[in-house]
Amino acid sequence: MEYSRKEAKKWARQKVRGLYMCPLTPVSSDLRFDEKGIRENIERYVEMGIDGLVVGGFISECWNVKPAEWNRYHEVVADAVKGRMDLWTIILDPEASVAVEKMQFASRLGYNGAEVINPVVQLRNDDEVFDWFKYVTDRTDMAVCLYRTPVSGKVLGMDLMRRLADIDTVIGVKQGELNRAVTLRMRRLMRPDFIVMEPAEHWFLEEQRLGGQVLWGELSYILYGKKRGLVKDYMRLSAEGRYEEARHAWLELDKVRTYYEDEFLWTIAATATYAGALGTLKDWYAAIGLKAGPVLPPVRSASKERAEQVAAKLREIGVV
User: Fold this and answer.
1) Model-level pTM?
2) Which of 54, 187, 242, 316 is the most buried (most CB within 10 A)?
C-alpha cells in the first residue's frame, strides 16, 4: 500500500480526490463474470479519466458470488488496471475474520483501501459495532471508508462515528443516507482529517465549494455517456474559480441527472437494496457501448422491452 498505518488519514486527504466510481460487472451468457468484458470496460474507464474504482460490492454483484469468484474478480480488476487508477474493494461480510481475510487478500493485489459496511446481522448497539470494526482494523493496515447506509440495517450514529474516526486507518465515510443536511452536519462535527464523502453527483459542484473532495461510490459519470464531459468541465471551471460557467455546465446535465436519480437513487431509497436497479443499469451500460450482459440470478434481468425503453430515453436526452 502507499502509506503506513499512522499515515492513512493524511494519505487519503491527499490521494482520494475526484471521481471514484463503482462499475457494473459484465456477465456472460453462461451467467459467470465475463473476464474479457471486465478488462475491456476498464480500458474505457481509463480513457474516461476516472481517478479510482471502488469494486466488489452491491453494484458489481459481488455479494452474489462464491468466495473463489470474489477473489478471481479482484485479481482480474487489479491486473487490468495495472496501477493506472486507485483501487478500493468493498467488504460486505458480517463475519469479522472473513472481512479481514478479504482485506488482506486485496491489499496483496495492490488495493489501497476498503469501503466496509457495518455487520448487517446481529450487532446493533454502538459498543457491538465499534468492537467489530476494532477487531477488523487491528488486523489489517488497509485504509477503511465506513459505509453509512440504511442497507446495513443500522445507520451509524454521530457518537459512534466519532469513536470510529479515531481509529488510525478509518479515513472517512460514504454518507449513503441520501440526506444532504446530515452530510453537512457531519462535516462540521467530525475531526478535520476525516473525509465525508457524498455519493450523489447532484451535489458535486456544490461539494467542491464546501469542502468535499471526491464523488465516491456511485457510477453516474460512467452512465452519462456523451454528456460525461460536462462533469469534467464543471470540475475544471470550479477549480479555476469560474463558478457561473461551472454552474452552466452543471445545469446542462439536468435531464440525464434526473433520469439517473429516478432509475437508481430513488430505487435504492424505496427498497433499501440495489438489486431492483441492476437490470435497468445493465441495459444503460449496453446502450452506451460498455460490456454488460444479464444480472446474476436469482435477481431478474430486465425485459427486452425495458431495454428498448432505456435505450430510447438515452437517445432522447443525448447520452447516446
Assistant:
1) 0.96
2) 54
